[in-house]
Amino acid sequence: MKKAILIGMSGCGKTTLIQRLSDDSLRYKKTQVVEHYLNFIDTPGEYLEQRKLYRALIVTAVDADEIGLVQDCVAQATWIPPSFATTFAKPIFGIVTKTDLATSPAQLEYARNVLQMGGAQRIFEVSAVANTGIAELLSYLEEPAPATPPVFRTPPLRAALAGAVAP
Ligand SMILES: Nc1nc2c(ncn2[C@@H]2O[C@H](COP(=O)(O)OP(=O)(O)O)[C@@H](O)[C@H]2O)c(=O)[nH]1
Ligand SMILES: [Mg+2]
């Protein structure tokens, strides 16, 4: 199973979704710090809402296979900037949350657009409360993580640099 880091504004439903995906009971819990689960990394919304905290997201995302951008379909505003995906050298997917609360198709469309503009490749629409769209998201996450290409490690690089430096 791929390990996903969930990023989205405060209250968009990241923690509740992780509880649902992990077959845990749903209970409200304010996320104050980065929290590591077996297959997920939960982040405080403030890390997205305050640009100076982006670096914390970048460092934390190193431990994940994929980035999950999360947008609540009821919140008709976002903190996800266009091309946010370029911040991370990882595949990005999008999750529209709280679909049980949507009262018009335009709300879902707005959230999908936000995620697409942020750089999400695939987009899932879920409700953690109504338990819809969860199976599709889980089966996507259960696909194995793509193998990363081999890269040179430090010794050959160091040797190459040593040869290049004038004595
Ligand atoms: N109706 C509905 N409420 C939800 C859903 N997911 C989360 N919530 C509620 O939204 C609020 C914020 O959820 P939370 O998971 O803490 O958001 P986070 O800040 O992104 O982790 C809580 O009151 C949740 O009960 C959902 O799918 N449907
Ligand atoms: Mg949370």
Describe the structure.
The chain is of the alpha/beta class and 167 residues long. It is 32% helix and 16% strand. The protein has a 6-stranded mixed beta sheet, sandwiched between helices. Helix 4 (105-118) links the parallel strand 5 (92-97) and strand 6 (123-125). The longest helix is centred in the last third of the chain and has 14 residues, at 105-118. The mean pLDDT is 90. The site of magnesium ion (MG) has 4 residues, from helix 1.
Q: Which ranges are low-confidence, i.e. pLDDT below 50, for 5 or more consecutive residues?
A: none
Mean pLDDT: 90
What summary fits the major beta sheet? 6 strands, mixed
Radius of gyration (Å): 18 Å
- For the termini, the CA-CA separation is 50 Å
Element-level helix/strand string: EHEEHHEEHEHH
Number of strands: 6
Strand order, largest beta sheet: 2-3-1-4-5-6
CATH architecture: 3-Layer(aba) Sandwich
Principal-axes geometry comes out as globular
Name its key features.
six-stranded mixed beta sheet, binds guanosine-5'-diphosphate, binds magnesium ion, Rossmann fold, 167 residues
Topology (elements, then pairings):
Blueprint: E1 4-8, H1 14-21, E2 35-36, E3 40-42, H2 46-49, H3 54-61, E4 66-72, E5 92-97, H4 105-118, E6 123-125, H5 134-142, H6 154-164
Parallel strand pairs: 1-3, 1-4, 4-5, 5-6
Antiparallel strand pairs: 2-3
The protein binds guanosine-5'-diphosphate (GDP) and magnesium ion.
Magnesium ion binds next to helix 1.
